[in-house]
Amino acid sequence: MRRSKTLAMLLQFWRSSLESESEYQLNLVLECLSVFGNLAGSLFVLSLLFSGQSTLGGWTWNEALIVLGLYTLLDGFTSCLLQPNLSKIVNHVQQGTLDFVLLKPVDSQLWLSLRCFSPWGAPGLLAGCVLVVLGLPEIRPQSLLLGGLLLASGAAILYSLWFSLAALSIWFVKVWNATEVLRYTLVAGRYPVSAYPPALRLVFVFVLPVAFMTTVPSQALLGQGSWHWALGSVLMAAVSLIASRLFWQFALRHYTSASS
After folding, report:
1. Among 33, 112, 171, 208, which one is most buried in terms of CB atoms within 10 A?
2. What is the pLDDT of residue 57?
3. Running along the chain, 260 residues long, what does each successive block of 10 average in pLDDT?
4. Are 108 and 101 in contact, with CB atoms under 8 Å apart?
5. According to the model, what pLDDT value does residue 259 have?
6. What is the CA 5 to chain-centroid distance, rounded?
7. Are the C-beta atoms of 211 and 126 separated by less than 8 Å?
8. What pTM did the predictor assign?
9. What total number of domains does the chain contain?
């Protein structure tokens, strides 16, 4: 019963968000142009990396397109949910409106993470799907299932990083700059991790887990996935979500409300 009420609440939130955003229909055109421009730039850089060689870090052109497609999908996910929600946590803390969120009869992390939904990330989601379809030599249900699971794990890792950085606003004022730095750092996920030097590969696996967001799911879609990497991706996602939850609870214990 409680889950159904939560789902109904989220649907109502997203419906109101869509109604509000639909007043600015020019944003859709601008977002399409932005996605097209970013995608054209990424494809141009990818073509330069492939110039004079048939593979990039052991990946063919079509395989690299899948990695770029999954990155574009995650970028669309960021525009739909992460940016419109998590960017407001800083404002809630600065303006004292976080008090009202904490008083609501709903989990505060859930409310702050899913309160808004922006349709302007849809072009990125669509472009990502097109790139994945173009890159896949064949569609196999088992590979799609595993790839979808690992992509969801990558999205969970991305969310956990963003939310944890946003939660730092309880102590620091200008953390939104850090989340923007994180977003641009994760641009490295546009290309296969094996294409980077060994030192950067270690960073993209153990420090900023870019490999688990795009490269590992791409290997699963191609039927080249290792169960060790798949298990590691799911485990990394679970640990990230739990860590973000514990960190939020720790942050709230140090939060000084506007009324105190």
Report:
1. 112
2. 86
3. 75 83 74 85 89 87 94 92 88 86 89 89 91 89 91 94 89 71 80 89 86 92 84 92 96 76
4. yes
5. 56
6. 26
7. no
8. 0.90
9. 1
Q: What CA–CA distance (Å, rounded) separates 52 from 28?
A: 38
Is 88 strand, coil or helix?
A: helix
Measured CA to CA in angstroms, residue 99 lies from 103, 104, 140, 174, 176 at distances of: 6, 9, 49, 20, 20
Report which of 213, 168, 252 is spatially closest to residue 74, judged by C-alpha positions: 213
Task: Report the alpha-carbon distance of residue 150 to residue 156 in Å, rounded.
Answer: 10
Whether 114 and 16 have beta carbons less than 8 Å apart is answered as no
Strand partners, 59: 56
- The count of C-alpha atoms lying within 13 angstroms of the C-alpha of 62, restricted to the half-sphere facing its C-beta, is 8
66 touches 221 (CB < 8 A): yes
Alpha carbon 246 to chain centroid distance? 20
Cα–Cα separations (whole angstroms), residue 236 to 28, 117, 195, 207, 209: 34, 26, 22, 11, 9
Residue of 165, 156, 186 whose CA lies nearest to 247: 165
Q: 259 lies in a domain?
A: no
Query: What burial letters (b/e) apply to 172-185, b meaning 16+ CB within 10 Å?
Result: eeebbeebeeebee
List the domain range (segments joined by +) for residue 154: 2-253
Give the list of residues 6+ apart from residue 10 with CB closer than 8 angstroms, or none. Answer: 114
- pLDDT value, residue 72: 93
Judge whether 188 lies within some domain. Answer: yes
Cβ-count burial 77-91 (b if 16+ within 10 Å, e if not): bbbbbbbbbbebbbe
Kindly state whether residue 224 falls inside one of the protein's structural domains.
Answer: yes
Q: Tell me whether residue 66 is in a domain.
A: yes
